[in-house]
Amino acid sequence: MTILSQHDPADLVRRLAHVRWIAGGTGAGKSTLSRVLAERHDVFVYDGDLAERSHVQRCTPQQQPYMSELLRTPVERRWTGRTPEEIFQSMPSLYGETFGFIIEDLLALPADRPVLVDDFRTLPAYVAPLLTWREQAVFLLPTPEFRRHALGTRFADPARARANWGDSDHAQAMANRLGRDELWDAEIRRQAAKHDLPVVDVDGSQDVAESAGDLAARFLLARGSDIRR
Question: Which of 1, 66, 71, 112 is the most buried (most CB within 10 A)?
Fold first, then answer.
C-alpha cells in the first residue's frame, strides 16, 4: 500500500493546496528561482535533492527496485558503459518510486505558509491528481544549449565531477548525461501535454528576476494568503 492510496484523494488535494511545484529538466535554474521566491515571498523551499538522502534510507528492494539497483551500482558505472536510453529507462523517478516519500514529507510540514517543492524527479502524471489549479505546478525545460552551458559550468569543478562520476571517463559521462536528460525532457513534455500542465522553455532570454516574477504570478504568491481550495 502506498502513501497515496492511504488517503482520500479529495482530502489529499485539500491538504496540499498550499504546495507549489517547480519541476522539469536539469540545468533549468529551478533551485535558483526557488531561492529568489523564498526571499521575496516567505515560502518554505522543499529541496528534493536534499530530501533524497532520507528517501534512500527508506527504500526497500520490494517497493523501490530501481532505486535499490541504482544504489548497488558503483558510481563509475552509473553514467558509462550504458546508452542514454538504458540510463533513462533505469531511472527510479520514471516509475515514481520515491514520490510517495515526498508526499509523506509534505504532509508532515506546517501548512501555515506556502511550500515550494524544488524537485527534478517529479513527473506531471504523478503530481496532476494532487493539484487544486493548473498552474500550481510548472515544469521548466532548458534548451540544449542552455543545459550544456549550465552543466558544463557545474561540472567544471573536478571534485564535483568526481563525486558524480567517480573515476570514469568524464567526457563520456557528460555525453550520456545530456542524452539521458534529453529523453527525460521529452517524457515531461509528453506527460505535461496529456495532463494540460504548463511547460516553460528556458533559453536564457529572460533574467532570473523576470522569471521569478512570472512564477510568483502563476503560483499566486503575489496575492499573499489567497490560496485556492
Answer: 66
The pLDDT value recorded for residue 224 is 46
Mean pLDDT in residue range 2-11: 78
For residue 229, how many other CB atoms are within 10 A of its CB? 8
Tell me the C-alpha to C-alpha distance, in Å, between residue 77 and each of 81, 88, 157.
6, 14, 20
Q: Residue 43: which H helix or E strand, with range?
A: none
In the sheet where 115-118 sits, what is the strand order?
Answer: 44-47, 115-118, 19-24, 137-142, 199-202
| Confidence class for position 229, pLDDT limits 50, 70, 90 | very low
- Assign 103 to helix, strand or coil: helix
Nearest in space to 65 (alpha carbons), one of 87, 85, 89, 92: 92
The sign one gets for the Cα dihedral 116, 8, 98, 139 is negative
The answer to whether the predicted template modeling score (pTM) of the entire model surpasses 0.90 is: yes
Strand 19-24 versus strand 44-47 pairing type: unpaired
CA 59 to chain centre: 18
d(CA 136, CA 124) in angstroms, rounded, equals 11
**pLDDT (tens digit, 9 = 90+) per residue, 74-101?**
998 999 999 999 999 999 999 999 999 9
The 8-class DSSP code of residue 219 comes to T
Dihedral through CA 109, CA 111, CA 115, CA 119, nearest 10?
A: 40
Q: Which residues of 14-34 are buried (b: 16+ CB within 10 A; e: fewer)?
A: ebbbbbbbbbbbbbbbbeebb
Q: Residue 182 burial (CB < 10 Å; 0-12/13-18/19+)?
A: middle
